[in-house]
């Protein structure tokens, strides 16, 4: 454990999300590459951490809760992608991630099953993404909380960032608190 007070954790250790106004082949490829590599990066970020260390807090969630959140969130996103690819602008079901983080599995379960889930999920997701024609990313789903249609290219950009963002939170804790 480091001595002295640690600095305040930044809200966006990997920078804030910015999708931009569109995408090209280079950006699409970069996002797909990030989706493919995200589980390995998360596994590396938690590698060697003890149970008490996994319960170290970054702002309002523990490392353990962050890992489980990424698995929950990306599982929901994968389903949203499949719905948008097979239905015309489906309305997705939002979920309360804060309340999910309070469930026993998010607070106390080992992180290995969530990382294994992400590895399998992201392998499928990356395969699906690479099989699509670029125009397929124009398809969208309707998000009732935000009251907007979300094109898949923007969701892809977000979830590539989302994995990077939460992995960076864990890396910050390792550098400044452990």
TrEMBL record:
One of its GO terms (molecular function) is hydrolase activity. Keywords: Hydrolase. Residues 1-23 are annotated as: Disordered. Transmembrane segments: none annotated. Residues 35-170 form the DinB-like domain. SUPFAM superfamilies: DinB/YfiT-like putative metalloenzymes. InterPro entries: DinB-like, DinB/YfiT-like. The keyword Chaperone does not apply. The keyword Hydrolase applies. This is Putative metal-dependent hydrolase. It comes from Candidatus Segetimicrobium genomatis. The lineage of its organism: Bacteria, Bacillati, Candidatus Sysuimicrobiota, Candidatus Sysuimicrobiia, Candidatus Sysuimicrobiales.
């Amino acid at each position: 454990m480091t001595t002295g007070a640690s600095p305040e954790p930044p809200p966006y250790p990997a920078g804030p999300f910015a999708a931009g106004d569109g995408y090209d082949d280079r950006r699409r490829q970069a996002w797909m590459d990030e989706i493919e590599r995200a589980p390995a990066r998360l596994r590396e970020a938690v590698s060697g951490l003890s149970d008490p260390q996994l319960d170290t807090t970054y702002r309002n969630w523990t490392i353990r809760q962050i890992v489980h959140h990424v698995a929950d969130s990306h599982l929901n996103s994968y389903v949203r992608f499949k719905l948008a690819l097979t239905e015309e602008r489906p309305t997705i079901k939002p979920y309360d991630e804060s309340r999910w983080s309070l469930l026993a599995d998010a607070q106390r379960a080992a992180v290995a099953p969530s990382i294994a889930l992400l590895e399998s999920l992201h392998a499928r997701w990356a395969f699906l993404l690479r099989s699509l024609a670029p125009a397929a990313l124009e398809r969208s789903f309707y998000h009732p909380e935000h009251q907007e249609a979300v094109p898949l290219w923007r969701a892809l950009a977000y979830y590539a960032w989302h994995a990077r963002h939460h992995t960076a939170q864990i890396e910050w804790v390792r550098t400044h608190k452990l």
